[in-house]
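Run log // design_07
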């Protein structure tokens, strides 16, 4: 059951219900694809000497007045600024599509290639220690903060109207970065909103364990031993069998030591930042409600406003699915998701 308090709205929407509630067919951003926007390539310093490459997408009226801005944070693995992963044969374009939806709603966005990916500083080729340091969890969290600073550097952006949107693992990084960015010490340049899209509410160790159990139950016990070693020592054990190497690459020890233990629900409960949880009911990676319920519960433990929406027939990548075998990679962002995202952010950020 979805927990709620007076300041938390939690609901389950079918796409048709979402259409009727918000008149999607009449929405000004329906079918919009970046016409009249300004797209700007940017490069900025990330944590620990890395350089990050990104795309700033501005709505057309940013030439006349300042606009709100959102930093978009990609999910796990080699996922680029547009939301595409070379391990997936189809183009997903999730973050690119979200950027275009936001621009149509009068909101700018900055999306960037994570370190080691795309146009950003490539993965080091030196020692294992150098690679471990490059891919440390704190560096990925720090990169979110520097991306927010880069967003604020542009004159078109309202410094008092910004948010983070993280997808999947990107939501964990957004949660980890949000506390300092929303602190009063930031003054008028502090963060004002947080969107967690297909983001797990349980520690990553629990999510990995559950995913392995669904696909290869015999690997749960050896993977548990590996994760316990990583969380204790900060190093990936040498000589792992091939089936574990993809999950636990040698250089990922420091990242996983922090990431596996990070508790997203606890982090959210400590924030008074306005928060929207967006989740697809057909997500097979972050499973409703087992993986998402802790975040929804955390909304009710806070002083800040929040809303959780679970949308029927929508995948991990926020796309419509046609049936159980459809992975939901291709096509546009589900209209119910797009409508909720823009209708929630516009009043929050004054777009």
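design_07 sequence
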């Amino acid at each position: 059951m979805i927990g709620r308090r007076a300041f938390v709205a939690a609901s389950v929407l079918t796409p048709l219900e979402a259409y009727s509630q918000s008149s999607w067919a009449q929405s000004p951003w329906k079918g919009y694809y970046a016409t009249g926007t300004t797209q700007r390539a940017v490069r900025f310093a990330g944590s620990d000497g890395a350089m990050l490459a990104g795309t700033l997408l501005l709505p057309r009226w940013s030439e006349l007045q300042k606009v709100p801005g959102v930093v978009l944070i990609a999910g796990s693995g080699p996922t680029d600024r547009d939301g595409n992963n070379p391990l997936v044969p189809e183009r997903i374009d999730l973050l690119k599509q979200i950027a275009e939806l936001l621009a149509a709603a009068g909101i700018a966005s900055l999306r960037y290639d994570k370190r080691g990916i795309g146009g950003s500083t490539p993965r080091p080729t030196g020692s294992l220690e150098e690679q471990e340091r490059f891919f440390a969890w704190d560096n990925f969290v720090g990169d979110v903060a520097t991306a927010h600073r880069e967003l604020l550097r542009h004159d078109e952006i309202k410094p008092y109207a910004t948010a983070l949107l993280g997808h999947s693992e990107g939501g964990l990084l957004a949660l980890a970065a949000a506390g300092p960015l929303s602190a009063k010490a930031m003054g008028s340049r502090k963060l004002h909103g947080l969107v967690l899209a297909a983001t797990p509410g349980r520690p990553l160790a629990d999510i990995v364990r559950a995913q392995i159990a669904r696909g290869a139950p015999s690997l749960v016990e050896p993977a548990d031993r590996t994760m316990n070693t990583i969380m204790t020592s900060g190093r990936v054990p040498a000589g792992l069998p091939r089936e574990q190497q993809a999950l636990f690459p040698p250089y990922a020890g420091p990242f996983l030591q922090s990431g596996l233990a990070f508790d997203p629900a606890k982090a959210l409960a400590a924030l008074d930042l306005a928060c929207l949880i967006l989740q697809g009911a057909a997500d097979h990676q972050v499973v409703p409600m087992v993986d998402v319920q802790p975040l929804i519960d955390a909304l009710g433990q806070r002083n800040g406003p929040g809303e959780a929406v679970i949308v029927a027939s929508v995948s991990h990548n926020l796309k419509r699915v046609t049936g159980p075998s459809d992975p939901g990679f291709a096509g546009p962002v589900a209209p119910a998701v797009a409508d909720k995202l823009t209708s929630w952010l516009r009043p929050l950020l004054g777009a």
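The radius of gyration is 19 Å.
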